[in-house]
Amino acid sequence: MLRKLTLVASLAFLAACSTVPITGRRQLSLVSDSEINTLAATQYRDVIAKGPLSTNSQQVNMVRTVGQRIQAAVETYFRQQNASDQLAGYQWEFNVIQDDKQQNAWCMPGGKVAVYTGILPITQDENGLAVVMSHEIAHAVAKHGSERMSQGLVQQLGGQALSAALSTNSAATQQIALQAFGVGSQVGLLKYGRNQESEADHLGLIFMAMAGYNPDGAITFWQRMDARENQASPPEFLSTHPSNGTRIADIQRELPEARKYYKPR
């Protein structure tokens, strides 16, 4: 009887799994694409309404130019892989939030992107910005937000379906969503796990290269980020995300593949 229950539980778990586009990693998925995209769009409108949005036209134009080029690259890549259906329901948006203290950017499921002004001194130019935006967009198309949302529903609400969780505990569910999408002031608490970060780095390099940005710029960007981060950060083995040193080493190994996609504009 116990073995039968274990088998049923295992089959249920497998049924709730999906495969990360491109990399093939299996991930927990309790939320449909349409549900997660709808929830993300609602959360995005709330965040953007609170703003404040940047009124600096140069910043806004740069973010939207880089974003639209990466969007086109992502759509081209998925089309070449006969996987355009993975982007069904995407309605891309690119906005700049005026907050010089937040060195952050994120992309919600469905292509909802926000860049905080605080990260622009580190990105320095379009190529540096492409490193960040392609990485965040890679999180979205790899369905990391849905995966983290599913994990949050299991850990905090016992694996409730999204619709039930919203109806019975809307505030908690919306907070899980914001954390799953990497949105919030406590950025350090919201970082993705190692597998997700590595996937986003890998895919991001390809997307930025296809968009006409030099993927080698990822090394110098992360070096600048490393120089700014708190030197008291915990050792890598105590963290859920790669150290900057490990990330840079991994990116260096992946650059030869990314360079094959790079055609300067």
Automatic annotation (TrEMBL):
CDD domains: M48C_Oma1_like. Transmembrane segments: none annotated. Keywords: Hydrolase, Metal-binding, Metalloprotease, Protease, Signal, Zinc. Residues 1-15 form the signal peptide. It comes from the Bacteria. PROSITE patterns: PROKAR_LIPOPROTEIN (PS51257). Its cofactor is Zn(2+). Residues 69-253 form the Peptidase M48 domain. Pfam families: Peptidase_M48. Binds 1 zinc ion per subunit. Belongs to the peptidase M48 family. This is M48 family metallopeptidase.
